[in-house]
Amino acid sequence: MSEERKPIFKPNREFAKNARIKNMCEYQELVDWAKEDYEGFWGHWAKEKINWFEPFTQVLDESNAPFYKWFVGGKLNVSYQCIDRHLEVRKNKAAIIFEGDRGDKQIITYLELYRNVSRFANLLKNRFGIKKGDRVVLYMPMIPEAAYAMLACARLGAIHSVVFGGFSAEALRDRIIDAEAKLVITADGAYRKGKPYMLKPVVDIALEEGCDTVEKVLVVQRNHEDITWIERRDYSYNELIDLEADTCEPEVMDSEDPLFLLYTSGSTGKPKGVQHAQAGYILWAQMTMEWVFDVKENDTYWCTADIGWITGHTYIVYGPLAMGATTVMFEGVPTYPDAGRAWKMVEEYKINQFYTAPTAIRVLHKTGEHEPEKYDLSSLKVLGTVGEPIDPPAWKWYYEKIGGGRCAIVDTWWQTETGGHMVSPLPGATPIKPACATFPLPGIMAEVIERDGTPVEPGEQGLLCITKPWPSMIRTIWGDPERFKKSYFGDAKKDGKPVYFSGDGAIIDEDGYITITGRVDDVINVSGHRMGTAEIEAAIKKHPHVAEVAVVGKPDDIKGESVFAYVVLKDVEDSFGEEAELAKEINQVISKEIGNIAKCDTIKVVPGLPKTRSGKIMRRILRAIAKGEEIKQDISTLEDPSIVAKIQSCVIG
Ligand code: PRX
Fold this sequence. Notes:
The chain has 653 residues and is α/β, with parallel strands linked by helices. It is 31% helix and 24% strand. The strands form 8 sheets. An 8-stranded mixed β-sheet has the order 12-11-8-6-7-14-15-23, with helices on both faces. The chain has a 7-stranded mixed β-sheet with strand order 5-4-17-16-18-19-20, with helices on both faces. Helix 2 (24-36) packs across helix 3 (38-49), helix 11 packs across helix 12 (310-322) and helix 14 (358-367) packs across helix 15. Bound molecules: adenosine-5'-monophosphate-propyl ester (PRX). Residues 27-82 form the Acetyl-coenzyme A synthetase N-terminal domain.
């Protein structure tokens, strides 16, 4: 595959002067240091960045690979790292700036954060008996109490599992059951586009069946709409919180104790509970904030993600607070009340670093191309993107109209499993090529290789692998260590040793720049939301008329990919029904089983699926048909080659 050469944008000189990593020589020194003395490199940073209660005795334990252990024997507390250690120098600094959907605002200083988190932790401990190792599920809107709840769990050593508020009751239930949660923390609801929406009723439905481990539900009242209160199960945070003391001793945690679970989609089966550990995670969350966003003491940093995703965990809550930054938390959507909302907020808070997803950039570009001109965006220094490939036109608009041609764009590639950034430009050092994640961060051995570890030729696509363990990596899949091994260490090897394979393909060019080409497995990425086609298929199969289904991603101008489903109905009669009506029903089933985010944009009834003689569905053919492409691959190996033309006529006709 040959690529035309991309233009190169050099870092802004003025910015680079004060950046933590100022040029490519400094970058290279760090890279070389990590290559020459991997453990020395990581040990140095762990000692320098973390306030240890007790020092670690070993940097990396590889004896039970791939169940790696980092900073063995060290004792710490992540909430202490994020709050207490800042009090001496930053107690009156804004830790969180909250902006609600309807324009309501709150500024929470580090001292207030300390008190709020301590009270929250005391409430969990005293009222609900939460202790080290217990699992707590959070089903929360974007309000400061969500961050308090995460940090309160960390303070007590309880393991939180945040479930994105867009997931359905069924999806929430699956996650509660898998984690065997003792407590669910939720809110009555919150506001979106000026109107209240509800969360607690979803929790009520989730808890109707099978969640035997859940003892209590704690409800934060945000929109004060009417909800059902179940006696002796449901408790109001607002009524109880002021009864608690505002100091709470942090639990002494081991480096490798689990910090949180976050469920994510894989190519097969049910979502996986990605388990992260304490020390390695917080170290890298903090270091990447410093290196990749280069946040300075007086800066205001805004990441628009939701705390239900890893980006919200690492880059709204843990990373910014660990480094003592001011982090903005926003409840609403950037297009309400108009497509200038985000830029208005940049002007108002003098945001210095802004981090969002390509889908949001495309929407804001399309719906409010000239909105940025109305606001003063001169405070911006670094712009970030994450979650999906960004296309060159969106990149250009972001660079020119939002960044005024003076801000670096850091296109950060990483995953729920990696905990923090892996491949990304450094804003003061890396000459940037548009829509390109550029180089691995120092200490991260990201390589584009073949399955056997051979490096790919420039311009060829290969597997994006991380060939050495790194501190913030996934430790296991909750309750399923075998699946962990198989999912991540089963596909690629280097020097005969299994290495972490991300599931993404990438191209490395002649200058060594890495461009992510997207998933090579059956995971699709819709508006930066990662979804397993197998999960969506399992949901669709619950519709009584569906016999078989195959789901693929179809390129979409705004969302990156859209969900395209081919369904085969149970009997011939059914196929004469109204397709639009059936599609509506199928989407209702998906909403119920997973949530609105997984709904299909296109549902086509077809007479059969293209299968090989061994019964494997040839998804490549289905992807090509969805795109309207000519079928180039050999279809003679199909059980019924004539099915391809039939499917094509269903899709076109
Ligand atoms: O396919 C890659 C894509 O998002 C996937 C990870 O999804 P998730 O675990 O939900 O985490 C998203 C936020 C980190 C990856 O396997 N992805 C992430 N960042 C990029 C990306 N694709 C292209 N460019 C990126 N910068």
